[in-house]
Design goal:
This protein has 226 residues and is mainly beta. It has one helix and ten strands, in the order H-E-E-E-E-E-E-E-E-E-E. The protein has one helix spanning 2-14; strands at 23-37, 50-64, 73-88, 91-105, 109-113, 119-133, 139-169, 173-192, 195-196, 202-219.
């Protein structure tokens, strides 16, 4: 989940018209996250319905080469979902049943993350969307109002440093991504409209981390490729 978030953040800043000359984007951010599930640690069973929750807060700064830096904007989100597994070709495949996602950004979020990864807190009023999915995966979504979300993290244990690299070459472009993450595990407590987040689910992980990344894309022709 973390690698996907950092890559998507870099790509979001990179969605600008580019030509044959490479476009370069740098990001730096502070983050806190947590994930809960009802899946047993021994693994899922086909046909059983499970639920999960993912909580995320961040303050990300992006700089596209040749342009003014983007102002860092605090972000807070929560994603709750139900799902099951079906067996196909001898393997279990996850099938989404329903989900409920909500987020707030900018001045609507109060966010504080300690520079030593000792603590983090976030709160805000989040706007929600709820979806259900049919047997073919088609979604039926509608606005689900707003909710009050608040969370605190307390860092635990040692700080770990991670590095990530990715490279993709196609006939249209070459894309390169490199990232560095400084991470500390944490305990977490969160409420959604006063109710405990993750109640009845087991905590898979919670952490506070700082990240930096660089992404470079070069088109192989005169037309925009990304």
């Amino acid at each position: 989940m973390r690698r996907r978030i950092l890559a998507l953040v870099a790509l979001a800043f990179l969605v600008v018209p580019v030509g044959p000359v490479a476009a370069v984007v740098h990001t730096e951010g502070w983050h806190a996250e947590a994930s809960w599930t009802t899946e047993p640690e021994s693994g899922p069973i086909a046909g059983v319905t499970y639920s999960g929750t993912y909580l995320y807060a961040s303050n990300e700064l992006g700089v596209v080469a040749g342009r003014a830096p983007a102002d860092p904007r605090p972000f807070l989100s929560i994603y709750k979902f139900t799902y099951t597994y079906v067996e196909a070709d001898g393997q279990l495949q996850q099938v989404l049943i329903s989900d409920w996602g909500a987020f707030a950004i900018g001045n609507a979020v109060r966010l504080k993350i300690d520079g030593t990864l000792t603590s983090a807190s976030a709160s805000g009023t989040v706007a929600a969307t709820a979806c259900t999915y049919d047997a073919t995966g088609n979604a039926d979504c509608q606005s689900a109002g707003t909710a009050s979300l608040a969370a605190t993290w307390t860092g635990q244990g040692d700080i770990v440093r991670l590095h990530d690299f990715a490279r993709e070459v196609t006939s249209a472009y070459t894309f390169f991504f490199s990232g560095s993450t400084t991470l500390r595990n944490a305990s977490v407590s969160a409420t959604l409209d006063g109710a405990q987040v993750g109640l009845g689910q087991r905590l898979q992980y919670a952490d506070i981390f700082h990240s930096t990344s660089a992404a470079n894309i070069a088109c192989h022709g005169p037309s925009p490729c990304f």
